[in-house]
Amino acid sequence: MKESGWGRIINFTPHPDRLTAGLGEQWELLDVGIKPCPACRMTHGAIDAALLLRIHLGTGLPADTTLTVTLNPVDDTIVGGGAANKIEPRNTVEAQFSVRFQVAAADPESIEIPAAVKYVNGQSI
């Protein structure tokens, strides 16, 4: 193997034999976590709740509905908060890290961004 490329970036001592070691015998599938939504993992619970609410109601939310999302303090600093880019994300990455956007995107026909989704920092409850 050459002394450059991905083998060099990942490990300074490349071991190309490891790429095929256990091939067909050792399966890693059970050790892999599947990410169900293209968003920060900290938003997935709120996304699931919004989807379940829509299923339970059998339709979109009434126009005057406000959803409240409660976050723990750590998640709040990453996907919540009052920063402008959490309230109205300007790009894909900001949207992936905005619980407001992700909850609204779970039911785009009936949840207005950002007005209908507010959050409560877990420390203030």
How would you describe what is shown here?
This protein is mainly alpha-helical and 125 residues long. It has a domain at 41-124. The protein is 34% helix and 8% strand. It contains six helices and two strands. It has helices at residues 6-10, 44-57, 73-79, 84-87, 92-96, 99-106; strands at 67-71, 117-121. The protein has a two-stranded parallel sheet. Helix 2 (44-57) runs parallel beside helix 6. The longest helix has 14 residues, at 44-57. The relative contact order is 0.16.
Key attributes of the depicted protein:
two-stranded parallel sheet; elongated; mainly alpha; 125 residues
Chain-wise SSE layout:
Elements: H1 6-10, H2 44-57, E1 67-71, H3 73-79, H4 84-87, H5 92-96, H6 99-106, E2 117-121
Parallel strand pairs: 1-2
Helix pairs in contact: 2-6
Give the tally of β-strands.
2
Question: For the CA atoms, what is the radius of gyration?
Answer: 21 Å
Report the sheet-strand fraction. Answer: 5-15%
* Strand order in the sheet with the most strands: 1-2
The share of residues in helices is 25-40%
Cα(first) to Cα(last) distance is: 57 Å
Oligomerization: single chain
What are the segments in which pLDDT stays under 50 over at least 5 consecutive residues? Answer: none
Shape call = elongated
> What is the overall number of helices?
6
| Average pLDDT | 78
Order of helices and strands: HHEHHHHE
Q: Please describe the biggest sheet, giving its number of strands, its sense, and whether it closes into a barrel.
A: 2 strands, parallel
